[in-house]
Amino acid sequence: MDPERLRELLEAVAARRTSVAEAVGELRELPFRSLGFARVDTHRHLRTGFPEVVLGEGKTPEQIAAIMGELGRGGSTVLATRVGPEAAPAVTAALPGARYLPLPRAVVLGPVPAPDRGRGTIAVVSAGTSDVPVAEEAALTAELAGNRVERVYDAGVAGLHRLISDRAVIAQAEIVVVVAGMEGALPSVVAGLFARPVIAVPTSVGYGASFGGIAALLSMLNSCAAGVAVVNIDNGFGAGQLAAMLNRKPGP
User: Fold this and answer.
1) Is 250 a residue whose pLDDT tops 60?
2) 121-247 CATH pick, 3.40.50.1970, 3.30.980.40, 3.60.20.10, 3.90.1150.10
């Protein structure tokens, strides 16, 4: 259940517009609803400030749609990640108003919230164009959590003048998410140039010795610059969620 919807429900009970029995009826399925194949965590938004996000990988289109539909009943905007183009049409057809974003391979149900929940801007920087799908997953996740996001793409270490040309965007950001494959050097460069915390995302982009992103992961874990935190390979969602949590304004 969305915290705002819960507040409205409690205010309605206090104002006698809704009976206690009706309110209990709406609340009795907290903290989860069982669909047989999944137990949907409808309480997560109240606990953490963010609704449950559906990992589409390994699920059928029918399962993705059913879980998203249950989560959307509470009024929250719902995100499903890792939804392939072959599954997306069936998912969106089952969910009126849902839309598929092919670059981050995501399905979104509900509006993008106003960017007023964060203290400042989150900058998402990608080393190369091939890293953009993971970067877009991070950017979309942060935006759906109510943050203003600035994108700086194709700014890798092979041409640092590209990064420097956008230094004003990065310098004014509260948090910087840096996405890179190959040798994974860009997060160290960004952390060394800007006084901002860096969330580093290794990607599986690269030739044989990149070992599917392990080389970039190890480079980022061994960064010589201070202030770099690292998430898992290709985990744009995790980076976007962490950035949103760190950027969140104080309050309930």
Assistant:
1) yes
2) 3.40.50.1970
- Helix (H/G/I), strand (E/B), else coil: 55: strand
The C-alpha atoms of residue 190 and residue 62 are separated, in whole angstroms, by 42
Contact 194, 164 (CB under 8 A): no
Beta partners for residue 198, in sequence order: 176, 228
Q: d(Cα 8, Cα 1) in Å, to the nearest integer?
A: 11
Cα–Cα distance list, 15 to 5, 82, 163 (Å): 15, 43, 56
pLDDT at 119: 93
Examine residue 61 and say whether the peptide bond preceding it is cis (omega within 30 degrees of 0): no
Between strands 78-81 and 106-109, the pairing is antiparallel
Q: Where are the alpha helices (DSSP H) in 77-235?
A: 88-94, 132-144, 160-164, 167-171, 186-193, 214-221
Where in the chain is CATH 3.40.50.1970?
Answer: 121-247
Report whether 100 contacts 106 (CB < 8 A): yes
Q: Round to whole Å and give the CA distance between 200 and 51.
A: 24
Contact 128, 181 (CB under 8 A): yes
**Nearest to 70, CA basis, from 35, 112, 94, 22:** 35
d(CA 162, CA 53) in angstroms, rounded, equals 34
In a 3-state reduction of DSSP, which class is residue 148?
strand
Length of the chain: 252
Report pLDDT digits (tens) over 87-144: 999 999 999 999 999 999 999 998 898 888 899 999 999 999 999 999 999 999 999 9
